[in-house]
């Protein structure tokens, strides 16, 4: 007990409680990422070329059109190849008759073995030519090798093409390949199936997910980097082959991590601290920091889930000071 004057003096001597804002420490997920730059490539890309010479009779596509696998794209004038096949068919038919007669005579001992062998060779030669003419005729029809998007064509209908001339490109873009490189020190933490995300200048606010599916088995001897290839789904066709990409590769995920706002950290010399509230008083706690994120930082030690962490007003605190916890803002505020 104390007298009225003495008690009033003691109360007046106590410093006022420091108003602070706090949050409850809860578990969070932390992704340990490395960054790189890469290039997007088509999942499949091929230049359609003529395998035989001829005049383009039909172009059965429009530039930028989606096409299906085996869809007819180009038809060359086949009149000459049809005639050559008919000629070879006639030659085979004649050879078959000749062989039949020679075989009959040979069996009756009325023809020599040489004549029989020559008839066999002629028939085989004519059949081989017939097969070749069938193949050449089939090459007058040029089909899409896979489903994709038609590019810009190089020739017009009616143009004469030689074997090997470019006609148009077909590109598969529903799925893209992402090629990028990482330093060799990260290789032990890389495996097929690892998640990546990428951003491109065309859509700076959008992150596109992908997964690593191939790792080059040898390093670049100059840069000592490993080449990785990821597959990126592109159903909306926003991404295009040739785009430059900024890549983030997730090396590790920690599901029960403690992540706090950066402003809660109080540096002092070579050590960093936070303040927690316990029984109405501030307690200064040294912490060890981990990964830094945008506006947040991981705490590896010093904090526990369920602690009341001071996030505002800590600069006026000292260890053991009385605090006044301000109401937490409602979700609507």
TrEMBL record:
This protein's source sits in the domain of life called Bacteria
User: Which Pfam families does the UniProt entry name for this protein?
Assistant: Beta-barrel_RND_2, BSH_RND, YknX_C
Domain Multidrug resistance protein MdtA-like barrel-sandwich hybrid: from-to ranges: 44-170
InterPro entries found in the cross-reference section: Beta-barrel_RND_2 (IPR058792), MdtA-like_BSH (IPR058625), RND_pump_MFP (IPR006143), YknX-like_C (IPR058637)
Instruction: Supply the SUPFAM superfamilies for this chain.
Output: HlyD-like secretion proteins
Keyword Zinc present in the record's keywords: the answer is: yes
One BP term from GO? response to cadmium ion
Keywords from the named record? Cadmium resistance, Transport, Zinc
Domain spans labelled CusB-like beta-barrel: 178-250
Enumerate the GO terms in the molecular function aspect.
Answer: efflux transmembrane transporter activity
Q: Does the keyword Zinc apply?
A: yes
According to its record, what are the GO cellular component terms?
Answer: efflux pump complex
Q: Which stretches make up the YknX-like C-terminal permuted SH3-like domain?
A: 257-323
Provide the function of this protein. CzcA and CzcB together would act in zinc efflux nearly as effectively as the complete czc efflux system (CzcABC). The CzcB protein is thought to funnel zinc cations to the CzcA transport protein.
Q: Which family does it belong to?
A: Belongs to the membrane fusion protein (MFP) (TC 8.A.1) family.
The protein's name: Uncharacterized protein
Q: Which organism is it from?
A: Thioflexithrix psekupsensis
